[in-house]
Specification:
Elements (H helix, E strand, L loop, with lengths): L1 H5 L3 H12 L6 H17 L10 H12 L4 H20 L28 H9 L9 H11 L3 H5 L6 E2 L4 E4 L2 E2 L7 E2 L8 E4 L2 H10 L17 H14 L7 H14 L4 H8 L4 H7 L1 H20 L4
Antiparallel strand pairs: 1-2, 2-5, 3-4
Length: about 300
């Protein structure tokens, strides 16, 4: 049996490994990434047998993949392959670990400028929202702008998630809007959190949802698309003559306003549900650098005041 396995194609082994070890154990979105990696194996090394995997053939595979991908994407590709390859080593199908000392290459990343609104622009956007007495998608836009929630988290909010006496909103699930609906777990453990709300938002939503079923998403629809909310947002932005942002840009707007207001990175990271402050620092590096320049001026004025 082992001899037969040694003479099978690498992509065949990898496909079987995915279904045995990953299927049902990871989120669908993560599973799709493994399946995408599988499709690249079929494209790049359709005739590579598993017993032909060595440091040279593996490095060539990474190099070929890196020709049309950024370095970070190539790193992710490498990590998704490595688990299967190490298992193949343990099974005796490969004599030595071919991933050892692998060199990760890739194209230079494109400049990704985060789109967000400043406080004045956000105020203009909110002033144009249709905040009537009935739940609509403009209320969804307001809630994301006030909390920094992810789109899938906002769609999963039910009346039961609001704690009006303590002005809190619990985030403990997401809505599977990409497929057939239904609740899903949050992105990671840190995404399970409580977000403090301002008193005005509390009053508004306490009236809006008081007669709604406790366990049903308040923005429930048979099918809702990210593009639908982006289109609504675009119309508001164009009408108010402010930069056009996406629904995810509302999350960036929320974070940037808090950072410029002097809220600590730790508090912003917790509010956004980031797994670590490093994620927040990387995402909002340009804002943090701007704040550092302001801090230098403040430091210099403070030190000058100490002069005799």
């Amino acid at each position: 049996m082992n001899l037969l396995k040694k003479n099978e194609y690498f992509y065949v082994y990898y496909e079987r490994w995915i279904h045995i070890y990953k299927e049902g154990a990871i989120r669908k979105v993560t599973m799709n990434k493994y399946l995408l990696t599988l499709s690249w194996l079929k494209k790049l090394v359709p005739n590579l047998y598993i017993n032909e995997l060595n440091r040279i053939t593996y490095q060539k595979l990474l190099n070929d993949y890196a020709e049309c991908h950024e370095r970070q994407t190539t790193m992710d590709f490498h990590h998704q392959l490595k688990g299967a390859i190490l298992d193949a080593v343990d099974e005796g199908l490969i004599s030595r670990d071919p991933t050892r000392k692998a060199i990760i290459k890739g194209k230079n990343p494109k400049d990704k400028k985060i789109k967000y609104l400043n406080q004045f622009e956000l105020h203009k956007l909110i002033s144009d929202l249709d905040l009537s007495n009935n739940i609509n998608y403009d209320w969804l836009i307001l809630l994301i702008a006030k909390t920094g929630m992810r789109f899938s988290e906002a769609l999963a909010i039910t009346p039961k998630d609001f704690d009006f006496p303590h002005q809190m909103l619990s985030i403990s699930k997401t809505w599977n809007y990409k497929d057939n609906g239904g609740f899903l777990p949050t992105k990671n453990k840190s995404s399970n959190r409580k977000i403090q709300l301002d008193w005005q938002t509390i009053i508004q939503f306490s009236e809006l949802i008081k007669n709604l079923p406790e366990d049903v998403p308040i923005f429930f629809d048979n099918k809702i698309y990210n593009s639908t909310i982006n289109d609504i947002l675009e119309r508001h932005c164009i009408k108010m003559n402010i930069p056009v942002i996406s629904v995810h840009g509302l999350r960036h707007t929320h974070a940037s306003i808090l950072l410029f207001a002097g809220v600590s990175i730790a508090s912003v990271a917790h509010r956004l549900g980031h797994s670590s402050m490093t994620t927040t620092q990387k995402t909002y590096l340009h804002i943090i650098q701007e704040l550092e320049n302001t801090d230098i001026d403040l430091i210099m004025r403070s030190l000058t005041a100490l002069n005799v």
